[in-house]
Design brief:
Endonuclease III, domain 1, two-stranded antiparallel sheet, DNA-3mA_glycosylase, DNA-3-methyladenine glycosylase I, DNA_glycosylase, Adenine_glyco
Length: 191
């Protein structure tokens, strides 16, 4: 099925959230809803980077550990991580242990600090919100990039961020509600 699916509870959702569990809870309670504040933006940016090549369910199951080991995504703390911190993270099986992604998290925290004198991470990302969201009826119609995600990717890279490709940035724009990611027919569409 590629269109909205009615679950056992009688509610229509995007098909990947049809069954009860962590993915449904994320779909219903978080995905496509606005977030606010530097740490919320840094968390989503970091988790989207760690998700690259993996399932989102894996990241959601590991999110409590990510929040713990990355100090609640406090940019100042993460920017100060040293070699011992990186080794600690590489040894922690509760998170995704990928050296390049861990390095990117530290790099992005440092770049986030540098953005503070220019309005901050949230202001920068919000500036790339599309005027209109696509309105796909099926998952086959869901775009994986957009002109806005391409432009955001370029700007973040210019400002020293890593693991911020156009597909990852499109997923970020969806996750934080800067575009409506839900299918037509899903109860969360335009909510």
């Amino acid at each position: 099925m590629t269109g909205a699916v009615v679950g056992e509870d009688g509610v229509a959702r995007c098909p990947w959230a049809a069954a009860p569990g962590v993915m449904r809870a994320y779909h219903d309670d978080e995905w496509g809803r606005r977030v606010h504040g530097e740490s919320a933006y840094l968390e989503r940016l970091t988790l989207e980077a760690f998700q690259s090549g993996l399932s989102w369910a894996t990241i959601l199951h590991k999110r409590p550990a990510f929040r713990e080991v990355f100090a609640g995504f406090d940019a100042e703390v993460v920017a100060g991580f040293d070699d011992a911190d990186r080794a600690r993270l590489m040894g922690d099986a509760r998170i995704v242990r990928n050296r390049a992604k861990i390095e990117a998290a530290v790099t992005n925290a440092r770049a986030t600090l540098a953005l503070r004198e220019h309005g901050g991470l949230e202001q920068l990302v919000v500036g790339f919100a599309p005027e209109r969201s696509p309105a796909p009826a099926t998952t086959d119609e869901v775009p994986t990039t957009s002109p806005e995600s391409l432009a955001l990717s370029k700007e973040l890279k210019r400002r020293g961020f890593a693991f911020v490709g156009p597909t990852t940035m499109h997923a970020l724009l969806e996750a934080i509600g800067l575009l409506d990611p839900h299918l037509r027919g899903c109860h969360r569409r335009a909510a």
